[in-house]
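Weekly structure sync - notes
Attendees: PM, LS, DV (DV joined late)
Agenda: review two folding runs queued last week.

Item 1: First target. Sequence and structure tokens pasted below for the record.
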Amino acid sequence: MILRRQLLTALPAGLMLTGCDALTRNSTAKAIIGSGEQATYRWQRLVGRDGLAREFSAADISPVFKVNGTRAPTNPLWQALSVGGFADWRLKVSGLVSRELSLSLPQLRALPQRSQITRHDCVEGWSAIGQWTGPQLASILKAAGLRDGARYIVFLCADDYGGEASKGGLQSSSRYYESIDLVDAFHPQTILAHSLNNQPLSTGNGAPVRLRVERQLGYKQAKYLMQIVVADSLAPFGGGKGGYWPDRGYEWYAGT
């Protein structure tokens, strides 16, 4: 089976260095990524839905884990929370749940934790291995209780991604968001990571908490999480395609 990371090698070399925005404007890149999305999604849902992403040893951890995308949110609320060491930060869980939640960083750290050393694969062509630690998303969703009709888990971020000059200037007035289905939400390797390599997340790597959905590409690993919404449809969020980059031509399912 040809998986997504193999298909990426078919992209023209110059495109691999230009970043996500340039890739979304290239029809060849979008066609290759799209074919990989459909093939990988079908395979994982038919026979590989419980498969694990490869985990590595501590000796394999990359000396530097590259910061990609936003390096520091410009959102005033996030900036104020950061100055306070995220003492007042809360992760809200709402939507089609029996019990809405508002979880502090200490509460997330007090939950049973999973630590995993995995490879982060970026659609731009680079990879890095890091050790991520945090509670499984499944435990939080079980605490909230999913109601009938729940199909998607949507992650709302504090990341005003469009304003970065390094990404070509203003791309969008919307904040970064992402989403996954319930299969990936309840996968054991899907965690809300608060630590990288046994240290609290840096600003560039998504402090205070980011999503790790290890069987998908880097743009699915949403940083600067603020709210989780359980939904029956993706239509009400952003451009309705399920994420900041899917709204701009990327595939929603980015399995590797």
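Item 2: Second target, run right after the first with the same settings.
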Amino acid sequence: MAIVFQKPHALTEKPFHYCPGCTHGLIHRLVAEVLDELGIEGTTVGVASVGCTYNSYEYFNCDMVQAAHGRAPAVATGLRRSLPDRQIFTYQGDGDLAAIGTAEIVHAATRGEKITTIFVNNAIYGMTSGQMAPTTLVGQVTTTTPFGRKPELHGYPVRVSEMLSTLEGAVYVERVAVNNVANVKKAKAAIKKAFKVQMAGLGFSIVEVLSICPTNWGMNPQKSLEWLEQNMMEHYPLGNFKGKDLEV
């Protein structure tokens, strides 16, 4: 009987620890499928930062390094420069990358570091009980904004992809989502292209993935997907912000 579906080799056998409905597991699978298809599992090093995915080193079969909160791009920079024949990626959430790690991601991008970042944006701090993140939407209720995020008190949500696309060293910047089959396919294609950009030595690449957090949003998975489509996609439009016509 022909095999039509199986676990990517680049994923370990360890079951995911994520909450029901969380799409981190799906995004992990897309990264693993790309590593398999490009044949680079054995030459790739991933950097796990702090957040819901702090122990992603347990899920990927490639070499992994644990970084301090927000410092994954700095660690990845050291790895790429000391191991120029390896592919290096960071896997980071919005509380990690867009808050304590803002300086690291901005300067890695402006230096044109030849690394790939998978940036998961669920508009909230997931691991630490649902506080407001830099990407939390105006009006969104969190544990630290019980009456909704107010611009006059908390400022406005950060659009990371738009910001990084203005930097010369960033050569490929795309925002995707994993809310339906069509978008999952586009997300995988973007992740694959981001790794190809790195393999071609062109510079910094990042794929921002809009994700859901049913537990901290206080919704079931179906309602969470609807909320993402109706709210997050309006503030964070999907699409390519840089490098659309790159041939890799």
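Discussion on item 2: The chain has a mean pLDDT of 95.
Action: LS to circulate a short write-up before next sync.
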